[in-house]
Design goal:
Elements: E1 2-6, H1 14-30, E2 34-38, E3 46-51, H2 72-82, H3 93-99, E4 103-106, H4 111-114, H5 117-124, H6 134-141, H7 143-152, E5 161-163, H8 172-179, E6 183-187, E7 197-199, H9 202-211, E8 219-223, E9 229-235, E10 238-239, E11 243-247, H10 254-258, E12 263-266, H11 273-289, E13 297-304, E14 310-316, H12 326-333, H13 338-348
Parallel strand pairs: 1-2, 1-4
Antiparallel strand pairs: 2-3, 5-8, 6-7, 6-8, 9-10, 9-11, 9-13, 11-12, 13-14
Helix pairs in contact: 1-13, 5-6
Length: 356
């Protein structure tokens, strides 16, 4: 097929997405496809291609820190223009290219690439794409609303409270959580563990929030869970083996995720078969509760409390696809190569979506 890969974008996960895009391109070339690598937020959107089997793809590394907020407004403006189009105007330069492809492979992470905006644009344009539709992506992207849906479906989720930094007083619900012990604070809509912090006191929480006020929006505050951390992926109708994230740091934040040696990721996780089956069942239920179907994929993150009970933290609609990301590791635990995984994701998209 002629496959256009969308990567980069305007979110703090831009570096991760560019690395995912390059990895996906190499896998699709290995499987005999023609590839166009596109960054809709770049000044020159076409990064490489058309590429054909045998062509090389430049490596892209992930920095130690996520990109700063500076420049994101320009990236968003470029992305808007690139994906503009519809009955009232001509196609933007990127949307026109995507219409010519047999399939668009979404290797975007975070921001408009994962909150349903891009998926909605592609659906309106009649462009076939990989991954979940815009409705499911939007449901999963806002962590507090997603946890409310999961809790209503009977899945175990942590207590939580929302806080808009800059208000006069820390909300009572946040103070109550902090009075019971350490808390984790993070943007309510973000990925790759961007801006995840632990706070042990009200003063510390206020300092963290003060440093996160520049355009990061509402914060989600949850109890710090001291137990083990796991993640489980669902690809189509198959639940992959459990991955355990063994931390050498208190939190699985952005630095730990992309710094060599900060974590050890084990697949299959060294846990009893009964517990592994339970985590897999919970991941499949979470996948379905948020509107993901048999033509999509997701990755659900869990952390255990002091008693060893797993709680569902979030469901990722477009998890990382770098060569060292968690979803490819889970696929290897199922006996798939990286190229197998990417081909399966592409194959899942062959059935048209009924909703945006």
């Amino acid at each position: 097929m002629r496959i256009a890969i969308l990567c980069g974008g305007e979110s703090p996960e831009r570096d991760v997405s560019l690395a995912s895009g390059g990895s996906v391109a190499r896998a699709l070339l290995e499987r005999g496809h023609e590839v166009l690598l596109v960054d809709p937020a770049a000044e020159t959107p076409v990064l490489a291609g058309p590429l054909r089997p045998g062509d090389a793809v430049q490596e892209c590394t992930v920095g130690k820190e996520p990109p700063s907020g500076l420049g994101r407004r320009l990236l968003k403006q470029r992305m808007d223009a690139a994906l503009a189009g519809g009955p009232d105007g001509p196609d933007g330069p990127v949307l026109g290219l995507l219409r010519e492809a047999d399939l668009v492979f979404l290797a975007l992470h975070g921001g408009r690439g994962e909150d349903g905006w891009v998926q909605g644009r592609l659906h309106e344009a009649g462009v076939r794409f990989t991954g979940a539709n815009g409705t499911a992506c939007k449901a999963a992207w806002h962590k507090e609303r997603a946890q409310a849906v999961l809790g209503a479906a009977g899945l175990p989720v942590p207590e939580r409270a929302l806080w808009q930094p800059g208000t006069d007083e820390v909300p009572h619900d946040v103070q109550r959580l902090l009075a019971a012990g350490p808390v984790v604070v993070k943007p309510v809509a973000d990925g790759s563990s961007v801006s995840v912090h632990r706070a042990d006191s009200l003063a510390e929480l206020e300092r963290i929030a003060a440093g996160m006020r520049a355009g990061e929006g509402e914060l989600l505050v949850e109890p710090f869970l001291p137990g083990r951390e796991f993640t489980v992926a669902v690809v189509g109708d198959q639940v992959l083996p459990v991955v355990e994230i063994e931390l050498n740091t208190p939190l699985f934040d952005y630095a730990a995720r992309y710094r060599p040696g900060a974590v050890s990721e084990v697949c299959p996780a060294r846990i009893p078969a009964e517990f592994a089956s339970r985590l897999q069942e919970l991941a499949l239920r979470a996948h379905e509760a948020l509107g993901f179907d048999a033509h999509t994929y997701s990755r659900t993150d869990f952390r255990c409390d002091a008693a060893g009970e797993p709680l569902c933290l979030e469901v990722n609609a477009l998890p990382g696809l770098t060569a060292t990301s968690l979803l490819p590791l889970a696929a290897s635990g199922a006996g798939w190569t990286y190229a197998d995984l990417i081909q399966r994701i592409a194959d899942l998209a062959t059935t048209p979506r009924d909703t945006p």
